[in-house]
Structure formats: C-alpha cells, structure tokens
Amino acid sequence: MSKRFTAGAVAVAASLALTVTGLGVPATAAPTSTRTFTVLAESGVSTDAAIAAIKAAGGTVVSRTDDVGLFQVRSDRADFASRATAAGALLGAAEEKAIGRKPKLDRVEQEHLVAAAATKGKVAKGNARKMDPLDDKLWGLDMIRADRARKIEPGDRRVTVGVLDTGVDASQPDLAPNFNWALSRNFAPDIPDVDGPCEVASCLDPVGTDDGGHGTHVAGTIGAAANGFGLSGVAPKVSLVELKGGQDSGYFFLNPVVNALVHAGRSGLDVVNMSFYVDPWLYNCAANPADNPEQQAEQRTIIEAMKRALNFAHRKGVTLVGSLGNNNEDLGDPRTDESSPDYGDTPPYPRPIDNASCWDLPVEGPHVIGVSAVGPSGKKADYSNYGTEQISVAAPGGWFRDGFGTDTYRTDANMILSTYPKKVLQEEGSVDEDGNIVAGFEDSVFKQCTAKGECGYYTYLQGTSMASPHVSGVAALIVSRYGKQQGRNGYGMAPDQVEQHLYRTAAEHACPEPRLQTYTNEGRDETYNAYCAGSLNFNGFYGYGIIDAYAAVTTPVRPNAKP
C-alpha cells in the first residue's frame, strides 16, 4: 500500500478542511484570496440544483463529476465552506490547502534499503525457470503459477487494467508495448507545496510519466510484456491504463481518486488496481468522539464520495482490487489509530476506532477485493493487515525477513522485483547521473538495455501494494479467457463473476498452527502478533486462498458459482 515510500522525498501535505453548519465565520465576512474546494452534493440532488447552491454560497464550479455529484469549486469567500455545508442541496465542502509536515519514508516497502548493511554479501536463490531475463527473480510468478497460465492465456489486448496510482512510466521498454495512451489520464495535478516545483507550466504532468515510482512498479507486476527483455508481468498481453490519482509525493486525495474511478467506469475498463488509502485518515469514521466536528464532517464526505465512486465503477463493469494495508492489524478489530491525520497542521493523535462506523478506504469500500501479502515461504508477511471481515485472497507481496534460519533471511530476493522509473532511482541515490547503478545497490536495482540503447530499470519493493497487482493481473486473465463481446466495440465480463471465479480457483491455505503467530524470530515485538481465525475454505490470513493464475484460466467458469 503506497504511503510516502520515496526516500528523501521533499513534500509538504495538502489538507481537506471541512466546515459544518454553525462553525464558519459570519456571512458578512470580507472576501479573502481565492481557494479551492471539493464539494459533494446530497444524494438525489440534481446537478443544476447543486450548482445553484454552490453559486449562492459564493463559489464558482471549475469542474464537475455528475455521476457521483462531485464538484471542484473556487471561491474567494472566507465563509464559503460553512455556507455550502449549510445549503440543503450539498453534503459538504472540503478545502484543499497546503500546510503542515513532510512525509516520511515508508519503512515497509523499502525496508531492504533501511537495513541494507544487514544484507551485504548475502546471496538469495531465485527461480529456476527463465522467460524474460529477470524472470528468474520473480518467485511470485511461480507461486501463483502465472508462468504456466500464460501458455494457455497470456492476456487479451482488448482487456484494460487501470493502475490508479502515482502514474506509469510509459517509456519503460517492458511497459511501452502494453500502454494504452487513448484511455490514460492524469487526475492529480502537481501541488507545489506537496510535490515540489511543477515540471510543466500547467502542473499537469504528461500522461506516461511517473515521478513517484509506485505506479510503475505496480504496472510491471500486472502486465510487463513478455518480450525477451527485462521481466514479465502476470498478464503480459493486456492493456495498461494510467489513472494518475496519486500525487508525486505519494498522497492520494479525494477528488483525483473519485474522478479516476468515474473515468474507469465511463471508459469501460475491466479491472482497476488500488494500492493506497485516501488521505489524511487511515480510518474514516462517521462520528469519532476523538475528532472535532470539522474532522467528522470531512470524514463523512470522504466515506460517501468513495462509496458512490466505487459503486459507479462496479455498475459499469469494473472489477475492483485493493491492498489491505501494511499496518499489521486485524481490520475487523482495529487498534487505536495513532497515525492520523497524516498531514496538515494538526499532528497525529490517538483515535480509538469503532469497527462498525469506521472504514479504511478504498479497501473497505463496496465491491473491493481485499488482498493480503505473503512472502516466498507462503507465510503471512509480518506487516500485512488481515482479518476475516475484509480479506478476500492472498498474493505474493514480498517479505524481506522471510526465511528465518536460512541463507535467504533478510535478502532482497524475498521481495517483489518490478519496473521502476530511472528518474526516481536517481533521486533516491541508487542510479547515478549517467544512468549507471551506484556501487552497493547491485543486488537491489537492475538495468536492462535494448539493442537500440533504450534502457529499463527495476527494483525491489514489498507490501500489500505489491500483492494487489498480482490479483489484478489474474483478474485480467480471467476476463481475457472468459469475457465476451459487449456491443460493437466492447469486451468484458461481469465483475461479480470475475470475483467469484477468482475465489473459487484460489489455492486454499489453512491457518498456521499455532493460530496465534508471533514474529519475534524476525525481530518484531508483540504488536505484530496475529491470530488466524477461520477455516481451510476461508480464513483471516489467506481469505479464499492464494490466487492461482493457472487454475483461473483452466477451470471453466460456472455461472453464479460460490467459492
């Protein structure tokens, strides 16, 4: 799950500050400088009525997403948010304002860099088969039998997989053959206070670029081409669609994410991968007593907007896949949240989480297939969230500390290798100005060049962010294998049918014994202890099982089948 993973990233956060009735400044307040808001209409309110209410409150609509009643608005009124929220036609108004702290390095996804000295000189074993040159390092393809599946079904070009993330580097030679330029969009303009100086005048980075890196890594696992170069993805012949909804800095704001999901539905995408949570709240709660009224209102707006967007995409035929998160907790029995808000002028504070009225979004939203992460041994990774309430399936996410007691313990090869932008590696310090790998990073960064001199770069990451794209790839294979022509130019498969087939063909995996797993051997304290509830058919660590690409493309689809 993406969350501030880039080492040395220079970013200050943007906050969504909501105001509720009675909490704003008086209606006679003098105008101030222009500000930007995300406004959500009440359910059932017409677009015209919502726009009229926005204008009456002193706002100007800049853009609108009618399918979910979302509007981007500018206003120079200091009291716009309170006036908008007081309007019966509007649910809430969220201000986008740059304030606060810099993000931190994600110590889960790049744990191997944090602990680089511990692995120096160790050699990890790869896989014996070789398709593309680096595929011998992709133990995840073996685990889910994707190497066998592609002989039956490598993917159909008509099947489109949206990568809702920080962008996709379409110049990468393994991604270029499968990149869909026509459908790709950037919904997250750079915010200088968050992402640093804009690279282009409009601050809207060109499609086919990724200044964060996370989205490019995810895209490679889903659909890097099997072209005799670099490495290959789970579904090497499907089309990849960039849905840039995340900032370069790794934050995911409400407005870009909602618009990306709506675009996915309107465009007829088949699968969307979501390896993130919507900032600034790890859990969005309807009325958490630890939060003040403005914060409660903000979270209610996020909850409603995300539910509308996810429901819309699902209705339009999109299979939705999301990472469970890297907070090593049972999502059905969450701990006190001490990380939120994760940006803004208010430091994080303890928030007891009521499971019945709090949601980790998007993964706990409607119709989302929730994915936990396992290491090469098949054991649940210490960082991975779990729990019978929200888990669907498990997949390879990498685990640096897997293999305790063996030569593979704390080796990079326990993680997930995938495509990555050269620019980000240079910023992180592992690739130099000339594009060469810096000494000391030879085991964690790889470079491959074509005969024409086009070079691609690859690096290891771990996390449920890396598990989720394995599932998205298998979902794409299912649509490729069993989808049908829909209309003159369409092709696809009902997302409920994709989901049930994915579950039915997953390899069942029983809870470990003892069921209460500890990770003390791996250097973790008792907060990492995890209890596996459930049966062989369905449990909190593995859901319906570890996904199986080969079984998914060789087992006939049964209409209305249950897992």
Written overview of the protein:
23% of the residues lie in helices and 18% in strands. With 563 residues, the protein is an alpha/beta fold. The strands form 6 sheets. Strands 7-8-6-9-11-13-14 form a 7-stranded parallel sheet, sandwiched between helices. Strand 3 and strand 4 (70-77) form a beta hairpin. 58% of the residues are buried. Residues 3-32, 99-105 and 117-128 have low confidence and may be disordered.
Features:
563 residues, alpha/beta, seven-stranded parallel beta sheet, 21 strands, 23% helix, 18% strand, disordered N terminus
What is the fold's blueprint, element by element?
Elements: E1 14-18, E2 31-41, H1 47-56, E3 60-65, E4 70-77, H2 80-86, E5 90-98, H3 111-114, H4 116-119, H5 139-143, H6 146-152, E6 160-165, E7 185-186, H7 192-195, H8 214-223, E8 239-244, H9 254-267, E9 271-274, E10 284-285, H10 293-315, E11 319-323, E12 358-359, E13 368-374, E14 393-396, E15 416-420, H11 422-428, E16 445-449, E17 455-461, H12 464-482, E18 484-486, E19 490-492, H13 495-505, E20 516-517, E21 530-531, H14 549-554
Parallel strand pairs: 6-8, 6-9, 7-8, 9-11, 11-13, 13-14
Antiparallel strand pairs: 1-5, 2-4, 2-5, 3-4, 10-12, 15-17, 16-17, 18-19, 20-21
